Amino acid sequence: MIARLSLVLCAALLSACQQESAALPDPVDVTAEAAGYYCQMALLEHDGPKGQIHLDGMPAPLFFSQVKDAVAYLHMPEQSHAVVATYVQEMSTGTWEEPGPWVEVSEAVYVIGSDMMGGMDAPEFVPFAMRAAAEAFAARHGGEIRAFDAITAQDVLGAPDAGAQAAQGEDDIAARLNALTSYKGQ
């Protein structure tokens, strides 16, 4: 009796999981009218992979000019609607000018900290469906490979390295002082 009940329960759970995964919306192709959620600029004007997030009760997805922006949105605690699905353009088969197909955000591995800048000329999280392609990309462009669930809020929402900012600020101040000294001497 217990074995039969367990079997029925497992079948019910499996059926619920199948129904839930079947209910996910398909990714939407980027059109000329698609604009980035944060920048409100046309997505097609930006190179690099993009992201889209489907929200419960909303008729169209939110588009993001960069994958990192979509991941940042997912890490923000205050959202008005539940996230139903998130897709990113994977780069295993794409180019920076023509990114690859949409994949579910958790199915990709990401190269973070590479020298490639995303659509808004900011550091990008570059998604790959194939780990070997991510490894080859990281060998050429630097960065580290991470699974989606290993990307933290600090990775996307944290401030840049304070030491690097301080050094850059000191260099900038020194350059300005030298420029003023040279100008005054003329």
Write the layout of secondary structure elements.
Blueprint: H1 2-22, E1 51-55, E2 62-64, H2 67-75, E3 83-89, E4 102-104, E5 109-117, E6 123-128, H3 131-141, E7 144-147, H4 153-157, H5 162-185
Taken in chain order, the helices and strands follow as HEEHEEEEHEHH
Indicate the structural class: alpha+beta
C-alpha-based Rg, rounded: 22 Å
Number of strands: 7
What is the CATH topology assignment? Alpha-Beta Plaits
Text of the CATH class: Alpha Beta
Span between N and C termini? 98 Å
Strand content: 15-25%
How many structural domains can be distinguished in the coordinates?
A: 1
At a glance:
The chain is of the alpha+beta class and 186 residues long.
Description of the molecule:
By secondary structure, this protein is of the alpha+beta class. Helices cover 38% and strands 20% of the residues. The protein has a single domain (24-177), classed as Alpha-Beta Plaits, CATH 3.30.70. The strands form 2 sheets. Strands 2-1-3-4 form a 4-stranded antiparallel beta sheet, with helices on one face.
List its salient traits.
Alpha-Beta Plaits; 186 residues; alpha+beta; 3-stranded antiparallel β-sheet; 20% strand; single chain; 5 helices; 38% helix; globular
